[in-house]
Amino acid sequence: MAMFTRRQLLESSACGFGALAAYGLLGRSGAQAEENPKPGNRIEGLAGLHHRAKAKRVIFLFMQGGVSQVDSFDPKPILEKRDGQMIEFDDAREFANTRKLGSNQRVMKSPWTFKQYGQCGRPVSELFPNIAQHVDRLQFIHSMHTEGVAHGPATLFLHCGSLNTVRPSIGAWTLYGLGSENENLPGFISIAPSIGNGGFRNHGSAFLPARFQGTPLGRASQSDLRIDHIEGIQSSDSTQNQRWLLQRQLQQLQLDRLTRASDGHDSVLPAADELESLIASYELAARMQSVSPEVFDLSQETLETKKLYGIDRKETETYGKRCLLARRLCEAGVRFIQVNYGDDSANPAWDQHANLPKHLDHATAVDQPVAGLLSDLHRRGLLEDTLVWFGSEFGRQPYAEKNGTGRDHNPGGFTVWLAGGGVGAGQAYGQTDEFGQLAIQNKVHMHDLHATILHLMGIDHERLVHRFGGRDFRLTDVYGKVVRDILT
After folding, report:
1. Cβ-contact 145, 160 below 8 angstroms
2. CB 326, CB 387: distance < 8 Å
3. pTM of the entire predicted model
4. How remote is the C-alpha of 207 from its chain's centroid?
5. Could you give the CA distance from residue 279 to residue 285 in angstroms, rounded to a whole number?
6. Cα separation of 235 and 239, whole Å?
7. Which CATH number does the domain housing residue 362 bear?
8. Residue 186 and residue 180: Cα distance in Å, rounded?
9. Residues 152 and 273 placed together within one structural domain of the fold
10. Residue 265: per-residue pLDDT
11. Which residues form the domain of 4?
12. Helix (H, G, I), strand (E, B), or coil: what is residue 78?
């Protein structure tokens, strides 16, 4: 069968824009063959892989605001022993405010007790009794450290590997390198993202072609996860085809105008790229309307499955629905799925500066849904090639902020965990100091975590490069090393 480019097919098809959905069903081979040679995409070899992948997709459970490591997964007995004592700590946030690195702070013990779970005997606090049942499947990293002491810069760094410049997000880089497994759905979806602390940039594509940006589904402050108009316009096929054909003709006229105007002028190329991406979005929308509405229909799930995710309880319903949708998107072939827990306020979710006990409310909201997701992925055989990543932009300090009842931001040492997709199970890597403030052993920088996630997806982070403005860019900048000790 002769192969056509997208533009050739659209120009020659009798059905015009109405044939977009048919093109999407032609198969990945044609789409991938067109995608790989695009300038700037340095991925080489079969399906864009640099080496054999352990994970086909990522589910990122983003805990916005900063989960306290010493109150969740990294217990420090000395906090109880020295509770209430004034001790000098080195504090990057205090240094930013006073230019003094050391400051006297009151040690504060955790309000929650820890128990050992599973065959591995990993300790987990009573904040997460359901996740604790899965410790034999989890790879803890206790020695994370990152850049940025405020939410905005640290959240951008978590997603984009940069504090303040506009860079592509990790989901966009992943989609850019590998493409989508399903031509009828976006390859990168962010469920209920926040509009603050980076906002759109946390799932944006920056200078990568716009078609690689994430598709936001809902908002942090909303529980509704519907996609408007997914069922399509109720009209006859002929009327719909005429509408699509006219729209495509107008877009083609504009694209031709931009192409003629460029005539070697790079300044016009971004506008042409944006229009091409707009056309691609219409193509995808047409295919989604015809074949994808059922993916977003949670009513198809059994009562047992809904209960597993906590959808039958008010306190867990919202995040339970998000996690269940993530599993359905995973089955449908979405490459990168981010499931956000947070809100749109200036002090997001886990940000307990003056009321640490509030951590319990947030833990209650996510504990059963996350545990349900792990159970569901495992029983369906999906966990083996799905990488689940649970973490925040930073952790929290082991002392009471301003001698109060909360903890301040801590980028110097905190915990994330991974599951499935080629990482160890029932293991812990790295260590913080005796107070749980600073990473001291087998330190893992956020650049290292990014490099490791890409590696598990079959991508060499040093070869995933895009040239922009005369410079080669990558997610990990000029840093990052794969943490091979946590791989299976």
Report:
1. no
2. no
3. 0.85
4. 19
5. 10
6. 6
7. 3.40.720.10
8. 7
9. no
10. 55
11. 1-35+237-291
12. helix
Residue 319 CA: distances (Å) to CA of 303, 312, 439: 17, 12, 30
The Cα 365–Cα 362 span in angstroms is: 5
- Core vs surface per residue 354-367: b (16+ CB within 10 A) or e: eebebbbebbbbbb
Closest to 64 (Cα-Cα) out of 366, 341, 416: 341
> What gap in Å lies between CA 473 and CA 481, rounded to an integer?
16
Residue 232 belongs to some domain of the structure: no
- Whole-angstrom distance, CA of residue 431 vs CA of residue 145: 11
* Placement of tokens 């909360």 in the chain: 406
Interior angle at CA 59, CA 458 and CA 164, nearest 5:
85
Distance CA(387)–CA(59), nearest Å, equals 6
Q: Are residues 65 and 116 in the same domain?
A: yes
Residue tagged 């533009």 (tokens): 7
In the chain, the number of structural domains is: 2
Judged by DSSP in three states, 408 sits in coil
Closest CA to 227 of 318, 311, 289, 291: 289
> Buried b / exposed e across 254-267, counting CB within 10 Å, b at 16+?
ebeebeeeeeeeee
What distance, in Å, lies between the first and last C-alpha atoms of the chain?
41
Neighbouring C-beta atoms of residue 20, cutoff 10 Å: 24
Segment 255-293, tens digit of pLDDT: 777 777 666 555 545 566 676 766 777 677 777 776 677
Predicted local distance difference test score (pLDDT) of residue 16: 39
Residue 233 is encoded by which pair of tokens? 């316009």
Residues 333-338 have a mean pLDDT of 96
pLDDT digits (tens, 9 = 90+) for 355-394: 999 999 999 999 999 999 999 999 999 999 999 999 999 9
Is 355 within a domain? Answer: yes
pLDDT in tens, 219-259: 888 877 877 666 655 555 677 677 767 777 777 787 777 77
> How far apart are the C-alpha atoms of 74 and 467, rounded to whole Å?
41
The pLDDT value recorded for residue 98 is 63
Helix, coil or strand: residue 401: helix
